Amino acid sequence: MGVLRIGHVNLRVLEMQSTLNHYENVLGLIQTDRDGSGNVYLKGWDEWDQYSIMLSESDRAGMNHIAFKVENDADLDDLKRRIADWGIAVEEMPAGSLHNCGRAIRFNMPSGHEMYLYAEKKRVGKSVGTVNPHPWPQDLKGAGVHWLDHALLMCELNPEAGINMVAETTRFLQDTMDFHLAEQVMVGPESKIQAATWLFRTSTPHDIALVGGAHMGLHHCAFYLDEWTDVLKAADIMAMNEVKIDVTPQRHGITRGSTTYFFDPSGNRNETFAGLGYLAQPDMEPITWTEDQLWRGIFYHTGEEAGEFTSVYT
Ligand SMILES: [Fe+2]
Fold first, then answer.
1. Annotated catalytic, 252?
2. What whole-number distance in Å separates Cα of residue 58 and Cα of residue 123?
3. Digit-coded pLDDT (tens) for 138-195
């Protein structure tokens, strides 16, 4: 099977207490552990592994690494070989290198982002259990997000210099880990420059997305909600807590999801994202957005750039 899904994101935060208030009381994540280095681990109520967010204090915001879970331990050997054959240095990491995880492999994608793959992580179960479960727990805080849904990574794109880390990293994810292309934005003369991609391993339109920019970084990590009214209510909760909202609730053309973008206290962009979009399958024909319809793809209703979408990221 190979890669199952996004496992966790390790975010750098400037100050832990205000950040925890944001992730626990606004988003509604559940704190499940801390370690001796001061890192804090959280999960959504609908997730069963111990954490999907790892917070690390730092003097600058951003992402330390992104990790994906694979189905079987033996997948790690197979993927290690395929990644090395592609020309990327891979490091074998012993069990425990990732907190409460089994052995892992570590590498940098062509874009420069650090990625881990692992097969085992401590399980703590869903808040509603697995025997005759209620549809949701009654002690939810804030927006009550279900799970970490996806991350969007910024990759260096400089066509004049012949640099397109979106295209190269997309090809890397397809070639080595069998990610499938759901949607892409093609720009430039004859629409030959692949400026953004949305890729999946699950059956939703994206588990990871790559967008071209001046330099690499984290654009956002997104948390899943059931439906549009939940996205609206989550934005209400952000206003009540004076969270800095980047883009108010609306729909994406790309992936069809409904969305709100906002920032954590360190300036890392988050998204609450609802709707499974459409059934993504390996044999679907990828969807292409042209340069003139790029903003219709991002913000479907206005078709215009909103907030600080391309200019601000960590
Ligand atoms: Fe997103």
1. yes
2. 28
3. 999 999 999 999 999 999 999 999 999 999 999 999 999 999 999 999 999 999 999 9
Ligand 1 center–CA 123 separation, angstroms: 26
Using CA atoms, how far apart are residues 254 and 197, in angstroms rounded to an integer?
A: 10
Options 99, 150, 180, 219, the catalytic residue: 150
Which residue of the set 23, 51, 224, 261 is catalytic? 261
Reported as a pLDDT band with limits 50, 70 and 90, residue 1 is: confident
Q: Which of 8, 220, 224, 313 is catalytic?
A: 220
CA proximity to 225, closest of 301, 168, 149: 149
> How do residues 59-114 score in pLDDT, each as one tens digit?
999 999 999 999 999 999 999 999 999 999 999 999 999 999 999 999 999 999 99
CB 149 within 8 A of CB 273: yes
d(CA 312, CA 117): 28
One-letter amino acid for residue 145 of the chain:
V
The answer to whether residue 271 is catalytic is yes
Plot region of 190 (φ>0 → left; ψ -120 to 50 → alpha; else → beta) = left
Angle between helices 73-86 and 165-177 (to 10 degrees): 140
pTM of the model: 0.97
Q: How far is the centre of ligand 1, averaged over its atoms, from the C-alpha of 74 (Å)?
A: 31
- Note whether 230 and 273 are within 8 A (CB): no
- As a whole number of angstroms, the distance between CA 210 and CA 198 comes to 7
* Active site annotation includes 22: no
d(CA 66, ligand 1 centre) in Å: 15
For residue 300, the CA-to-ligand 1 centroid distance in Å is: 14
Residue 41 designated active-site: no
38 CA distance to ligand 1 middle (Å): 28
Main-chain dihedrals φ then ψ at residue 174, nearest 5 degrees: -70, -45
User: Do the Cβ atoms of 275 and 227 come closer than 8 Å?
Assistant: yes
CA 126 / ligand 1 centre spacing (Å): 24
Contacts of 137 (CB under 8 A, 6+ apart): 45, 127, 128
- Known active-site residue 150: yes
